[in-house]
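user: can you give me the structure for this one chain? tokens are fine.
assistant: on it. calling the predictor now.
[tool input]
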Amino acid sequence: MEADREWMYEGRIVNGMFSNKWGDKVDEFVAFALRHPECVNGGTAIRCPCTLVKCQNKKFLNVETVKVHLYKNGFVPDYYVWIYHGEKEVHQRCSRSVRVSVSETDQMVSDNMNHTTYHRMVSDAAGPEFNPDEEPNAEARNFYDMIRAGDKPLYEGNSKRTQLSAAVRMLEIKCRHKCSQAWFDDMSNFIQELLPPDNLMPLDFYSTKKLVRGLGLPVQVIHCCVNNCMIYWGDDSDLNSCKKCGHARYKETVRGSGNRLYIRKFKVPYKKMHYFPITPRLQRLYASTATANEMRWHSEHHMEDGKMCHPSDAPAWKHFDGCFPDFSSEVRNVTLGLFADGFQPFVPGPTNPKGKIDVFLQPLIAELKSLWGVGVQTYDISKRQNFQMRAALMWTINDFPAYSMMSGWSTAGMYACPHCMEDSDAFRLIKSGKQSWFDNHRKFLPINHPYRRNTKDFIKNRKVTKQFPGVRSGDEILQDLNNRGLRKVMDVDAEVVNAAISKTCGWNKRSIFWDLPYWRELLLRHNLDVMHIKKNVFDNIFNTVFNIPGKTEDTYKSRDELNKYCRRPQFAQNLVTSKYPDVPFVLNKSQKKDVLEWVKKLRFPDGYASNLGRCVDAKKLKMFGMKSHDCHVFMQRLLPIALREFLPNRIWEPLTEISLFFKQLTSSSLTDEELRNLDEQIPVILCNLEKIFPPSFFDSMEHLPVHLAYEARIAGPVHYRWMYPPERYLRKIKHKIMNKAQVEGSISIGYIMDEAAKFASFYFKEGDPTLPLKEKRNEVYLDDIVDDDMFEIFKPPGKAIGAEGKRYLADNEYTAAHLYILMNYPEVQPFIDVFITEKRRQFPNLNDEVVNVVTEQEFPSWFEKYGMARGRGRGSTLPGRTSFGTGSQASGMPDPGRGSGVDEGPQQTEDVVNVLQQHHQQTSPHHGPGIVMNDRETWEGEEGEDADVGETSPEHPTDESLPIAQFDPTIDNP
């Protein structure tokens, strides 16, 4: 394409006649547009770029009409980049060569007030069917009002803001900062005082909302039965009373008594719900250039090294695509997930619909069926074309109580596990009466695993030979529902029939989701929520280890029933003193104080975790008020460190393993091999916990982790399928309640305003509205650091909050900081490799455990001697940095072909090896002399008996403890 496009605005008329040369250029322009089908509508229509207000690249016309308009009116000003006709980049005017992309051009605001960014916003919101030539209806009139507001400057002489841009900007600020309507009105009045008298700034929130109402999306208000029996919707929309319970739909028109009678002007329903249709909201995602491209990301990205980073990489998604190729062939079809969580601000709990939630899901299911079977014509602005958009629901995401409401499988009682179903081995404890999942995990082990034959540490005299049969398919579950004759809750006889059937199985209803034609084909229909499961597991461990009264599972009842199920006589009641002996998994008073003092002094990076110190109760020796994310951080990062010095190895190791299991499970990217390993490890971890804690410790929450790795392997990374995002958003929704007497209405209005403000904010030239506008309070950008000679490890990721203080480091702190720097500095890694190679050459039988200990103890001094030996006589030493000379070895890199030339301390290494070997021989008598054990000792002796395993010396931690080279929370500022 030629670089000079001045012809578009010059030479159109020559000597009073249209120029043939200019006409040839127009033909070239039209031909160029037709070569880009994504910008052509109906095969022959393109956007008309003439100067008419109704055109200006907003309206599709056939090519001949476009030519006529261009001859008559000319091109819209400054249209040198043909972005609406398929051009990706172009050389702008004359000799000034500038590369301009479509996304950059869309963000530019033209100086011409007839063609602004806000015009594009209105056009995108209205859709391609919006025709300015037609007589406007009530809905179209809203868009006309916004177009006119987009043409009017805020006041005479202001070329930066129009009435529309000022209104949507103010609305976006209100929603972003959660401001009240009263604040909005006061701020609008104050701005009025600052502007000239003839300004067009909206006077208050009402006038602003009225101006931008065309950007809002629809909401339906549906009346409901006060007893949650039905909704007045569809064929039942004209009923005046409930067809199941007979309760009236509307409140009485006359209220009061005696002489104080009032007549209602309108019919007021006893109960109503607000339904936000998803179809226009999905279309809105394709209507904005800010989101349209992202809707195809799942099909355009590629897995790297077999790592799943999105549900589209997982087998469940791919299986669905294989079952329905006609759906997956159009990459713009939408795959949905449905979050469900309890949300009842200021509403009494008994009105919770619980199992009758299906009644209120009917409009959603009907819309999903329509989107699956027929779809809806949608305009994709990123490709400038219409397509038939379809949508499918992939799964639901909910906490465990909501799991029962959505799926129809009861999550209470002995059949609470939705994967094991009737194959559960749960039982009721004799003394406490609780449901226990103790000894429910050996069936997941390999058939030849020794734990299956262990008759001491689990339920006594019991061997396990059966295996877990696997998760049932959708066809098997649907067949089971049909055979049992379960009813949907909307059926007239559902309550009686389902109550009778639920006494013999875990089903309590037939879920409405089975009405979806593809539901039976899904590999995973309802997700177990990792967030709540992990929190419950952590709470149980922490409360039991800290012996929190009323919450610990180590009670007198659990002690009384312990030996009825297990062989643990050492923990039985002393018949002489009537007291119970202490158990090794409970901390004493001084130990609890030490842990809580340590937690109180912890400091985290800003935004990493909340202030856990506020949760410490030093008087009652417990922690309180911990949120789900606090438990998440403590479980995955702090629990192994907090308990390392106070619990025996045989107790600390399983607790560390369950902590690392959750840490690996919640990684942002996962491989199938990693998840298969986790799936094999978690039954062993739970069995090891069963060897420690009493049966009362294991409720359904302690059982569910056994299925989490399987779900992650089927459905992909956990952070797309847990409850953190919806729960945080629900908190945001609660702030929109301005009228506590009309909670639902307040939320509805606030949500609609949020949608409008969010959509409008995509057209602000200030940048991406999804990113925070201000820096974090301690954020430091590396670009601001001018010292190019500084090592990367010393470049701060943040800055301290408050005044700085100085203190001398203790010897152990200095050593830990020194070792942390060496182990995490990339340029030092080659020297670590040389050091380890030398040690393995001197001591071929060293295992990884000993190598780690030797490296931590000897490498810093070895490295110092190595650097001094290599740099002696060949260079100078800078403060804080060792110079390794300037000759052939000037870089200081080791020469693998020869020795280091310094004393590596072989005698010291031999001492370490001897100490560890002696420790292993003492604690593991069944091993031969001189054998260094690999990684981990087994606790089990012959025939399932436990070997007496002592604690690992604190000076020589095992390889499973957190290495000192990693982040040590006990050091505030290393």
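assistant: here you go. The two ends are 60 Å apart (CA to CA). The first helix runs from residue 20 to 34.
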